[in-house]
Amino acid sequence: MTDLSAPSSATAARLHEIAAVLAAVGLTTRLHRTGAGTDLTATLRMPGHREVEVILDEDGYTELRYWAEVSATPNAAVAIIANALAAITSPGSLAVRAGQASEPVAGYDGAVTERAEGAGMTGPHDHLAEQGRIPNQARPHPADNPHDSQVRPDDLQARLERLPPNHPSSPHRDDGSRKPPLPDLTRYELPLPDEADSPADPELADQPHTAPDGSWDWKGRHLEPDDSQTADEVLAESRTAEGRDSDGNYGEHGLTPAMRRIEAQLDHGHLVEGTEKFALKDPDRFKEKLADAIERNPDKSCLELAREIHDTIRYTFIFSVEGYTDGMWDAQARVEAAGYELEVRRNSWSSEEYKGINARWFDPDSEKLLEIQFHTQESWEAKQQTHDAYARMKDPRTPPVEVMRLREFQKQISEAVTIPPMAPDIPEYRREGR
Predict the structure, then answer these.
(1) Which residues pair with 33 in a beta bridge?
(2) Is 313 in contact with 255 (CB distance < 8 Å)?
(3) Among 140, 245, 321, 338, whose Cα sits 20 to 30 Å from the Cα of 58?
(4) Is residue 397 very low, low, confident or very high in pLDDT (cuts 50, 70, 90)?
């Protein structure tokens, strides 16, 4: 790779200016000479393996190439190309400098890089400036930039017709025959990912919905009216078992007061901050899980499946890294001494995507299942950080390529968690018949 820190020609200086503006809008540039030594290329590498490549040759022509994943939407491609075009044609990148001639960069005989004002359309730079996406650049007055001449659609077509047959933008093949018309990409347009996930109007976002007939829908899941009512009834039972009254206050009875008493007995460790906030599963998350269970187990009743959801009531104990293993055994012994029955213990400290221990317990008094997790502060924070990614992975509408990306994200977060001594050696457990 040739060092271009000191441009050796007007073309190199021009490319450095373009690269600087592209960097200002968040793109990364890589400059190098081609084999001939006179053509210069800026490759812009972006997340998702997308690339934009800007090529300037010794004759002053500018070529822009774009690569994207198969899953990239047309709108996403247009947005990225618009960013690049805005930077190339921006007055800030090619403005008249002291001792420098006003010389625009040509783009295929000017047909690509000029603004299409004559047709009442703003150029890409104008569109991005209106949205505030190009920082520290004021929109120039047309008179300030002679290159911003008005271009009519018929002028653009005429320029394309004059291109040599082997030019990639020429409407003719090498043998002189006319190429077929390009497909209308608007027929294939999908919303940009951030537009789909965060619409401008919050009311249009994908929210849980209960219909007048009592049926429930969210994220592609559906519950019939009777099943949704069953879910509400089981949630009400869980609320009573957890210990809070209709006003949200606690007395002596219930699971949360019991867990607070166990916490007070521990030599080391404590319940996670905000335990009361986390103790009951969100009703719509519960119904989401129930809808998945009904789909997987059509032979079971809705009531049976709803009562098998073991994390409707859940608690988390936090221990230091050094005291984790002893603290976990101490907490488990005190929970058992309080009359709760351990059914399942799952150790995930050796997992690439999740660190911690999750245990399922049975409360004989309320006949309710509950979940108790054992974490360090680090592993708890990692779980919280990856919660949204986990939820999206479970969404059946999430594309496989996105699931793979989210899984890698979970691995990256979990990899940074310190593993307590002997924690991976804690054996898993399943009570006979459960």
Answers:
(1) 40
(2) yes
(3) 140
(4) confident
Beta bridge partners of 244: 250
The answer to whether 70 touches 80, Cβ cutoff 8 Å, is no
The closest of 276, 246, 245 to 259, measured between CA atoms, is 276
Indicate if the alpha-carbon torsion angle 376, 377, 382, 385 is positive or negative: positive
- Extract the runs of DSSP E, i.e. beta strands, from 182-274: 209-210, 216-218, 221-223, 270-271
The sign of the torsion formed by the CA atoms of 151, 152, 158, 161 equals positive
pLDDT at residue 130 tops 90: no
Q: Residue 378 phi/psi, 5° resolution?
A: -65, -45
Instruction: Pull the structure tokens for residue 337.
Output: 């001494």
Determine the Cα angle at 69 with ends 43 and 22, to 5°.
30
Collapsing DSSP to helix, strand or coil, 345 comes out as strand
* In contact, 52 and 72? CB cutoff 8 Å: no
Structure tokens at 377: 């502060």
Q: Which amino acid is at 304?
A: E
pTM over 0.70: no
